[in-house]
Write a structure and sequence with these properties.
The chain is built from 15 helices and no strands.
Length: 255
C-alpha cells in the first residue's frame, strides 16, 4: 500500500511541477521552508525565555516560524507578478524534480504519522514496508533538508523507541539507569494522573487538541522547570536511547 501511495504522490506532485514550473513551485514552498529554517535557528534560544515558555511549550517556536513564513510570502507576492506567463521546457523539467522531492517528504511524513499512531496499539502494528520506506526516505532525502533534517532524525529516533517491544524498552531503561527520572516526584505526578495519561495517548494517536492541551498543562511545564529533571534528561539523548534499543533488538534477534 505504501508503495502505491509513493507512486501516486510522485505522479501528482510531479504533474503539478510540470504544470507550474520549478520557479513558481519553489516560491510556493519557500514560506514553509523558511518557517522551519527560522524555527531551527531561533527556536531553542526563545525557549530559554521563561515568560514565553510558561505560556506553552510550543509558543516560543511559533514566533520564528511566523517570521520565516512571512519572509517567504513577501518575495512570493512580489516575484509572481514579474514571472513570464510562458513556462519553458527547462523550468517544467526542474518542476518535475521539485515535485518528486516534495512527494518524498509528504510520503515520509505520512509514514511517520501512521507508525506513531499505531505504535502503542498491539492490534494494528505498522507494516514493515511503512517502516522501511520511512527510514529509506529519511536517509536519502529528508535528513538533508536544512532546518528539517535535525527534526527528522529526532522523529526517527522516536519511531525506533516507540516501535520496540515493551520488554526491550524496559531493559534499556534498567541498563541506562533511567529509573531515577521515573521515580522523581514530578514524573510520578504525571505518570499517576490518569487524565493526563489519556491526553498523552490521544496526542500519540494524532489528536491536535490533546497535543495543544498538553503543551500548556501545568504538570508537563513543571518537568521543564525542574533543574534536576533537566539535568537528568541531559544525560540521555534520544540518539543514545535509540542506539540502546537497536542494540537490544539485535541481541534478541541473534538469540
Amino acid at each position: 500500500m505504501v508503495y502505491m501511495m509513493l507512486l501516486l504522490s510522485l505522479l501528482f506532485f510531479g504533474a503539478y511541477g510540470y504544470w507550474r514550473g520549478a520557479i513558481r513551485y519553489l516560491l510556493l514552498i519557500a514560506p514553509f521552508f523558511l518557517a522551519s529554517l527560522f524555527a531551527w535557528f531561533a527556536g531553542p534560544m526563545l525557549f530559554r525565555i521563561d515568560s514565553l515558555r510558561h505560556a506553552g511549550l510550543f509558543w516560543p517556536l511559533f514566533i520564528p516560524m511566523w517570521i520565516g513564513f512571512t519572509a517567504g510570502v513577501v518575495p512570493q507576492f512580489l516575484l509572481n507578478k514579474k514571472l513570464p506567463q510562458a513556462i519553458g521546457p527547462r523550468d517544467r523539467g526542474w518542476g518535475i524534480a521539485v515535485g518528486a522531492f516534495v512527494s518524498f517528504f509528504v510520503v515520509w511524513l505520512g509514514c511517520i504519522s501512521v507508525i506513531m499512531r499505531t505504535a502503542n496499539d498491539p492490534t494494528h502494528q505498522p507494516g514493515g514496508s511503512t517502516l522501511f520506506v520511512a527510514k529509506g526516505l529519511n536517509s536519502a532525502v529528508v535528513q538533508w533538508i536544512p532546518g528539517v533534517g535535525s527534526g527528522s532524525d529526532t522523529l526517527m529516533n522516536l519511531v525506533e523507541i516507540s516501535t520496540a517491544p515493551p520488554k526491550v524498552r524496559e531493559a534499556v531503561i534498567q541498563e541506562m539507569r533511567m529509573e531515577d527520572i521515573l521515580e522523581h516526584p514530578i514524573m510520578q505526578e504525571v505518570l499517576l494522573d490518569d487524565d493526563l495519561q489519556q491526553e498523552v495517548k490521544a496526542a500519540a494517536s494524532g489528536s491536535i487538541g490533546a497535543l495543544w492541551r498538553l503543551q500548556t498543562n501545568p504538570s508537563i511545564l513543571k518537568i521543564f522547570d525542574s533543574p534536576e529533571l533537566m539535568e537528568a534528561f541531559g544525560r540521555y539523548s534520544l540518539d543514545d536511547i535509540a542506539d540502546a534499543v537497536r542494540t537490544k533488538n539485535a541481541e534478541g534477534t541473534q538469540r
